[in-house]
Amino acid sequence: MLKNYLKIAWKVLQRRKFFTFISLFGISFTLMVLMVATSFADYILGPHMPEVKTDRMLYVNRLKVTGEGYTMNTNPGFYFLDKYVRPLKTPQDITIYSSEFAYNAYVDNRKLPLGVRFTDASLWNVLDFVFTEGGPFNKAEVESIARVAVITEATRENYFGEGKKAVGQYIEVDRTKYKVVGVVKNIAATRTNTYADVWVPYTNLKEDYRKPEFGGSFEAILLARSPEDMAVVKAEFYNVIKDVPIPPTSNGVHFKNLQVHADTLVESFVRGVGRVDGEVNLLLFSMFVILGVLFFMLLPTINLVNINISRIMERTSEIGVRKAFGASSSTLVVQFLVENIILTLIGGLIGLVGAQGVLMLINDSGLIPYSDLSINPTIFVFSLLICIVFGILSGVYPAYKMSKLPAVAALKGGIV
Amino acid sequence: MIRHLFKLIWNRKRSNFLMILEVFFSFLVLFGVCSLLISFYINYKKPVGIAYENIWVLNAQAHDIPELEKRQRLEQMVKRLDALDEVEYVAIGSENGPYTRNTWNSGLLYNNKEVIANMVYVQHDAFKDVMGLEMVEGRWFTENDASSNQEPIILTLDAKEQLFGDEPAVGKKVTMGHMPGDPIIEKKVVGVVEAYKPGGELESMGESYFLRTTLADTAQQSHSMIYIRVKPGTSPVFEQRILDQVSGAGPSWTLNLQMMPDLRTSYLKQSLSPVITLLIVCGFLILNVALGLFGVLWQSINKRYSEIGLRRALGATSGNVYKQFLGEILVVATFGLLLGCFFAVQFPLLGVFDFPAQIYTTAIIVSVLLIYALVILCAIYPSRQAAAIHPATALHEE
User: Fold this and answer.
1) B167 touching A (Cβ < 8 Å)
2) What does the record list as coiled-coil region(s) (chain A) (predicted)?
3) What is the pTM (predicted TM-score) of this model?
4) What is the average pLDDT value for chain A, to the nearest integer?
5) What was the ipTM of the complex prediction?
6) I want to staple B322 with a disulfide (CB 3.0 to 4.6 A). Which of A180, A208, A293, B387 is the partner?
7) Which of A104, A111, A310 sits opposite B295 (nearest CB)?
8) What 3-state class would DSSP assign to A206?
9) A152 and A129 in contact (C-beta within 8 Å)?
10) A240 and A83 Cβ atoms separated by less than 8 Å
11) Cα–Cα dist A319/B229, whole Å
12) At CA A209, angle to CA A174 and CA A69, rounded to 5?
């Protein structure tokens, strides 16, 4: 039965090449855009090096203090994180590191911009960097203010030259020489919470990071023991934050309220995009995303429905014959839906190839430094799902319309 | 004729419904994109006023040294840089420089009129020459301003027009926006510059004002952005020399030198890439719709073969048939556009997104014209085919 449908579908596709082209063009482009978008979303929000254990990680990277007519939005400071977040009992590990500092290094009269993070030694346990040379620095080195650094492969290539070894050599950042102890694989710039070119112990920071101020330029990641443990860690975190004494005044402003959050990667993203203050409502966010996708798919769908109706009307006599020989309306609907899904799947395949091309183009263009976008199995399954939904969406109405054709008129070939 | 066409479409509204819907959604997409592009264009037309090509920006942050020493060191840095042959002008200014993405907005009052503007502190009078600002009225800050008992302020033309209209501004007194309870600060306008838009080309706010401070004036906060205008054609190698000159200041300084053209490029890249993505996607959506309309029209004309034959046999010229089909599709488009305009006019009426109403109206007009152009383009070939049908063959087949 299905084999017959497939055969008919194939023949119909070949009959009016122009229509097939229009349909395939619309389908493949729509699906391509959706696949590229999903791949981007996955790249920003999914587990990727070095944030592999995202299901166990909570990010503390925003701090908001409000007073009378005064709001301060900043990163938390080292003092705050060290005093209130570091002592938490439930997480397996906690890392505190600075946001990205931008410096320029000069190599052979060439400027090399470097993003530097000042970090503790726990960073190497919480995050999963891939070391291609040497290894991380340890806690003792951080405490003794050792001038050591871990750099990325790209930095090694730009600073020391192609194919050279870096471990044991010195890199100069902000007029301080650091000894390279490790080289890690490049981090994509879309990893906004962890991206850097160079990591050095936080004790090397020139500014006084121990100042008793809540705001500053640090971030923290809490690593829970298991994904189920996340709620426990969150509860402890908010319990501690609740009791943090709010600094009375600073620059003559009376502070009243302190807001710090421990968010998962997705929550942290939504908080940044939607400027959410309280609890992040993920359901609402997904609704927005789904509505957006539906709105984008609306126009191609209407277009496809329109074309499908035109194509069906060409086949009135075929439908009449089938009806006269006893095919029920539902059989015809199923047949047409199968035909349409096949068409969509072919379009999806073209779209997949196109999406792969676009992603490769983006990787090569250097639009996102060190990006390595690709279509992974999750995205492939997801796109397959999109294809089938799209096929059904655009096939139901024309199929219904077709099945309702009166057999007699259809046989006569009359216009309905 | 037109009434007749409307009747024809209305009678077949069910089969035309999908086409109307398609036109409607295409219009909404076009309307959105046009609004965005027009607002960008309007912003782009507002001059930036900054000759960014040969400006280098040095951010010199001091850590843990006394304020007085910091000021002395900064003064020293400026002197040393000024002495270099390749450097034309040097000035320290506030951190919200062009393309830095730092913004400080503050209000300015005159006669109960308020304007929100970029607030720029100028610590050296050479700032005007570094940025290449053009005066249109009055003068720039001078040494004498330090001894004057009236604190001077300089406005951009945009800010001046909002506060004073066409009247001259020089000599008038404005007050700075303030919190309740704060002392009111009065400033005297000494000049108006043509433009200064630190937010860059795509920024809408062209209102800025400049305040003068000096490093010697310890009552005011000191700033740490050193803006340097180098001679045209200075090689990037010179960067290292600049850093050598200023790094003598001490180890507790963090120095970061950037070139304004680089800052501008990265700013443009970041602001334009989402827009270009949007344009490509919308372009393909519209192309998709165009191809679809073309296919459907072609198909429907094939279906009405005998009708055309009959009309031709009864004396309609091929031109008449051509006009009828073109007219029909225009009427269908009009139905979709009426529906679309109904939704689009809600935007200026309800004031969504803070865009000026004029942008929305222009966007509506442009999108309507684009949709009409699009449907006519799609209808020309099928209509011509319909017009070419020979009455004898059409009737014979029937």
Assistant:
1) no
2) none
3) 0.80
4) 85
5) 0.75
6) B387
7) A310
8) coil
9) no
10) no
11) 78
12) 115
| DSSP bridge pairs for A348 | none
Nearest chain A residue (CA) to B63: A207
Cβ separation A18–B240 shorter than 8 A: no
Lowest mean pLDDT among B125-129, B336-340, B393-397: B393-397
> Two tokens at A356?
């792969």
d(CA A269, CA B259): 31
Question: Three-state DSSP class for A168?
Answer: coil
Structure tokens at A298: 């609306």
Query: DSSP characters for A375-399?
Result: --HHHHHHHHHHHHHHHHHHHHHHH
Instruction: Identify which of B358, B353, B297, B350 has the alpha carbon closest to the alpha carbon of residue B325.
Output: B297
Residue in B26, B258, B291 closest to A299 by CB: B26
Cβ distance of A307 and B257 shorter than 8 Å: no
Q: Do A111 and B236 touch (CB under 8 A)?
A: yes
Q: Which residue has the tokens 């850097």?
A: A196
Angular region, B170: left φ>0, alpha ψ -120 to 50, beta rest = beta
Q: CB of B323 within 8 A of CB of B8? A: no
C-beta atoms of B289 and A174 within 8 A: no
Tell me how far the alpha carbon of residue B339 is from its chain's centroid. Answer: 29
Angle formed by the axes of helices A17-45 and A377-403, nearest 10°: 140
Q: What's the pLDDT tens digit per position in A181-213?
A: 999 999 988 888 899 999 999 999 887 788 888
Residue B75 C-alpha from the chain's centroid: 37
Question: Are the beta carbons of A230 and A56 closer than 8 angstroms?
Answer: yes
For residue A26, the chain B residues in CB contact (below 8 A) are: 288, 291-292
**Whether A182 contacts A136, CB under 8 Å:** yes
